[in-house]
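Collaborator request log, item 7. Partner lab (contact: R.S.) asked for a structural prediction of Tetratricopeptide repeat protein to inform their binding assays.
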Amino acid sequence: MSAAAPAEDSLDPAGVELRRAALLAETGRWEDAARAAGEVLAADPGNAAAHFLLGLARISLGDFRRGLDAVNRGLAVEPTAEAGHRLASAALLGLGQLEEAVRAARGALRCAPEKAETHATLAGVLCRVGRAREALDAARRAVELDPLSPECHYAVAQAADALGERTMERQALVRVLELDPQNATAHNDLGVELLQHREIGAAARSFGAALAVDPQSPVTRTNLDVLALVLARRLYLFALLLLVAVAVALGLEIDAEGTRGWLPVRRLVGLVGLALVGRWVHRTWRQVPPALRGPVRRRALRRPLLLLAWLLTVAMAGTAVALALLPRDLAPFAVLALLPIGILNVVYLVAASRRARRT
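Returned to partner:
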């Protein structure tokens, strides 16, 4: 979201101060930008551009009510300023006034139907009110008007996500990142899309890229928790399947009335299964950026449910190896570990189910 910047050749003091406010806004120094715009308005209360910059700064700071007031004062001076209507739409979204936000976005479109940004704004607002098909039409029109705009392609990704069109969403996000490799939001959203398809290593790379651009992003850090959870659950499932397979092989061997023909089968099942799990772990972990490995480990250790999943994974994998490799006379002793493992599995599954319902 942006407001109209003053002309570069403004030489009067108000113009210089307004330009400074615009530069502060461009660098995300919203408090300073608000003060600079306020100083311009103190000398020139009818300066619409200053009102819009003040509104932009306050909206970016989360002060949607005062941001909307500032934008409306600017629109009172310049009612056909499309930037003002777009800012009003953003403020109304922040206030939860969704239909009013749609009307404001349509007002921007009426003022400048030839600008891609007005169509992209309308698409984003329509997504928020659940009108995804209309949003996709608006986003596509935005791309037609400006095919090199990352914001327009991101609007397509948002609409596609709302419609459940995963292939279209991924293609749009990839295009956003081709045009703007430093777009942390697109990196994060691509990571979420990849994670939904269980492409864990690729998702980790996207989250790593997002954090490299914006290390303080709370959304990406939350998604790291999700990544750690998915990784733990995948390994938990692999270890459980390995344990069951080896236990079945051992049971068949014991039922074979003393023959030793099943011993190679039991060992083969255990070793092949362990090799496959190890290969998956190695390949996936190599795809996780080194900068993320520490945070993922720490998050796993700080969450009781995740820690329980990791402990169960290690216990089941270790028991499966013992069942596979121990001589048949000793292997039944490893079966004794199945009881506490089974109890812990019940505890874990119940806790995970309750947490899923709360989430």
